[in-house]
Each structure stands twice: as C-alpha cells, then as structure tokens.
Amino acid sequence: MTRFTPAELEAARDRLVPDVVADGLRALFCGINPGLMTAATGHHFARPGNRFWPVLHLSGFTPRLLKPSEQGELLSYGLGITNVVARATARADELGAEEYREGGRLLAAKVGRLRPAWLAVVGVTAYRAAFDDRKAQVGPQERMIGDTRVWVLPNPSGLNAHWTARTMAEEFARLRVTADPLS
Prior knowledge:
Helices cover 33% and strands 15% of the residues.
C-alpha cells in the first residue's frame, strides 16, 4: 500500500472519487463520504482498518478478498459503490446536516437512474441524516426509491466498535441472501 504524507492526504480534501456503478446492479453499496485515503488513492474504502472489503468477502458477496484497487471487479458480481456525500473529508463529522440532505436527494436521483435492486447504505447515522429518518435501524427499510429496496448496513469503519467483522459479515450476508436467494 502506498504511504502518504500528512500533506498529501490533506491535499486530497474535497476531492471527488468516481463511483463504481452500472445500470441494474444487484446491490449498490453507499458509503458516507470518501475519506482522505480514499481520495488520495481513488479507491473506495481504502483506509487501512476499514473492514468493508473483508466483510464483503466474509459475507459471500465476493468469492475472494478484493483490494480497494480492484474495486472495478465489483461490477462483474453485480455490485457497485457510491457515497451519500461526494466530497472527501478527514472525518464524517465534518459534514453538515444540509450536506447530508442534499446528498440524499442526489443519491435518490442516481438510484432512480441506475435502478439497482438494492441500495445498501453503510452507516445508519448517515442514512438517518440523508433521508430524515431518525428511527431507522440496521436492516431492510420500508422506504423504496422507485423500484429499489433499501437496506442499512453497519458502518465498516474501524472506529465502529459496536460491530465486529463477524457480526458485520452476518448482516451483509442477510442482504446477500435476500438480494440473491439462489446464491
């Protein structure tokens, strides 16, 4: 993995990271916003300690553990990645309420265009803020965006101590089984 200086990471602030998307995905995973490591590398969930890639594999969504640099392979599995808020920050708490709401509006429009079977938002707090749903919990949601169902997953950040990789993988696997009952 490339090592970045603090100055190089800071230079990645506010950068945009391209989505990994296609029409008609099985599941479109949606992070909160890119961190500085993600922005510096251009690869989603690139920060060491983020459990997204291991959990995606442990849950059975991918047949092997992918590296962030292999994110393009997700499309071959019917999976993609986007974010609620596009701009990169050091921490999600740098985002304001209006930024989340606007991100939710833009995300809903993107989902309407791409029409994935499932939108999987990783982070219940981000989902609540983006869609003004204070009572949302991890799991399938009542809300639909067009024909797309919504599932809220635990945030895979290493800072989320409430969930282990194993318990996260169990929740991701619940979505996988629901999204593709023949798998």
